[in-house]
Amino acid sequence: MDFVGLENEARHADLAELRSAQQGGRDPNPASLLARSESFARQYADVIEKCYSDEDAGRS
Description:
By secondary structure, this protein is mostly helical.
């Protein structure tokens, strides 16, 4: 999985949304920004979780 690419996509989308809001004289949508961050974090956490056995993670 290309985490650098995913992070860059999320960052660029956030910056574009912030720029658009600023140019439109409105506040950015925090829910949209948060959803992108949560999506990236979940994908990253899923991969990391698969790298550890239950014993390594203290679940056994």
